[in-house]
Amino acid sequence: MSDAAGGREQPEVRRLLEFLLEALQAVEVRPDLPEDLAQVPGLAPLYALVLDMRRFLLGLSQGDLQQKLEHKGYLPGVLKTFQSNLSHLTWQTQMVAEGDFSQRVDFLGEFSQAFNSMILRLRDSIEALRESELKFRTVADFTNDWEYWVDKNGRFLWVSPACVRLTGYKPEDFVADPLLLHTLVHPEDRAQFQAHFADIGRSDAPHCDMDFRVQDRSGHQFWVQHTCHPVFAPDGAHLGRRGCNRDITARKELEEELKRRAATDFLTGVSNRRNFMHRAQEELLRSQRYGHSLALLMLDIDTFKSINDTHGHAMGDAVIKAVVAACHQNLRQVDILGRLGGEEFVALLPQTDQAGALAICERVRQAVGGINIPAKEGMISVTASLGLAELRRGESLDALMRRADTALYRAKGGGRNRTCADDASEDETA
Amino acid sequence: MPDRNYKFSWNLIGDLKLGRPNLGSSMRVEVYRLMQFTLRDILEAQFGTQKTDEVFHSAGKLAGMEFYKAFFGHITEFNEFVKVLQETLRELGIGILRVEQADRVKGSFVLTVSEDLDCSGLPELGYGVCVYDEGFIAGLLESFTGARYKVKEVDCWCTGGRTCKFTAETE
Q1: pLDDT tens-digit profile of A155-188?
Q2: Which terminus of chain B is more solvent-facing, meaning fewer CB atoms within 10 Å of its CB: N or C?
Q3: How many domains does chain B have?
């Protein structure tokens, strides 16, 4: 280094400047002044300031906002202002995290703009999300169906409020007790339900659709149609299963009523021809499998056409109902009674041989003979003719019915109000 | 006869619309500082520095408490209090208040006031002058929380800072 006047070297000044430059530029510096500079006036506080600012700046660059800078003056002041700004920013970010989207930054230049834009975008996104969630929640909460979402472990993550109306239990009851639903399923349906529930954690478990009965909190029983299917996140992760229980009690009752109507005779309530044939076929196979006896009787109301013609169809219907009542009184619980059509009836008598069947037929015939129905034209008396046949080994239902019908035909031909057994003239009674 | 002439009341502020129809309610900061520092001068000369600071601290605290009653008495939630306080101080040109740290459980706060009415732009003096602000902040916090606060200015424009920093701790 040279002085201004003549360019002569000033080694002490050069040494001092090099030392200060090193204090600013070197990665590591000594904590105190070197011996040869220790006595330079004013250097000690300057070096202490440099060291303090180095420490402070290093901490700041590493995100330490708690450290203190003891020195005063412009440079320390600017650094402390920067530290304060970062601290403000931290606090404001915490406020945003708590949901305060009114926070704005105006002291960090371009960063302020970016931060404020981010807050606005965040606020708009969350508001949009809330609106969207409100829409879906409104749909979900007001559905009539008892909807739910269970995770892979069978825990309820969400249950629609409709469960309260259907079961008397709140959504939180199902969330708190994952097995509550199992206990509500009717004991006869529980095994089927639990077998299905065991698959709940499988991502490949198929769509499920089943009906079962549920008991509500007060013990009242109702039917639900249960449907569920696996749920996946957009990235394909298996999230569990989405289920829906729909109250189908009214439908089930209607189905039962339709089944009953399809199987029974509208006037008398006994099995119609189709249902009788179905049930009789099952009983016939059972008898053949176990080697039990089985008899079939056919009954025809004598001169029924003249009753209709003389007294009208209403009275004819009353006669038919009275005959059915007489049959019910003399048949057993296990016997199957059906109306084949018009005034013709049939009854299947399980575990009954021909002699037993004959006795039953006679009781029926006599009960029918005791029917007296008052009418305008006078009292209506009723008689019936009966034919019976006992099942032969390997015989079909049609064949058995043909033989009973033949016997009935003989009873009619023999003067009515009598019973004829197939292949047994000695069993004929009148 | 009342025993005091200047017991504070907002009535003493007066009806500025009536009294200053042309000049309005604003005046220059220099005038405010002129009054403050001439007052400090006389007080310090007569009662010493410490007593002067005590007077300014107490006056600031009274101002903070009256300010709270007049503007923020209805607010119960801390973040809302801070927000309205920030807006009000800025709107009135008192300063730009920001929060560095707030631990309500411990009752510990670090606050800064930028562009402070009392000190921003003053020369470096080597000591803080915002003793009135200390009292003002203490008055606000005590009114809001119901606890007594010790407020200390740790950085000031007059010590080379670009913003005044205050710590507030419950006593």
Answers
A1: 999 999 999 999 999 999 999 998 898 899 999 9
A2: N
A3: 1
Three-state secondary structure call for residue A96: helix
Burial class (CB in 10 A: 0-12, 13-18, 19+), B164: buried
Query: Who among A72, A91, A95 is closest to B100 (CB)?
Result: A91
Residue B91 has a pLDDT of: 93
B99 vs A91: CB contact, 8 Å cut-off? yes
ipTM of this complex: 0.76
SS3 A218: coil
Query: What tokens were used for A151?
Result: 């995770």
**How many A×B Cβ pairs under 8 Å?**
55
Contact yes or no for A72 and B110 at CB 8 A:
no
Q: How far is B122 from chain A (nearest CA, A)?
A: 12
Does any domain span residue B12? Answer: no
Percent of chain A whose pLDDT exceeds 90: 76
The answer as to whether B39 is a domain residue is no
The answer as to whether B127 is a domain residue is: yes
Average pLDDT over residues A211-240: 91
Domain that holds residue B152: 49-170
Over range B69-80, report the average pLDDT: 90
Q: Which residue bears the tokens 């020195």?
A: A71
The residue assigned the tokens 């200047």 is B6
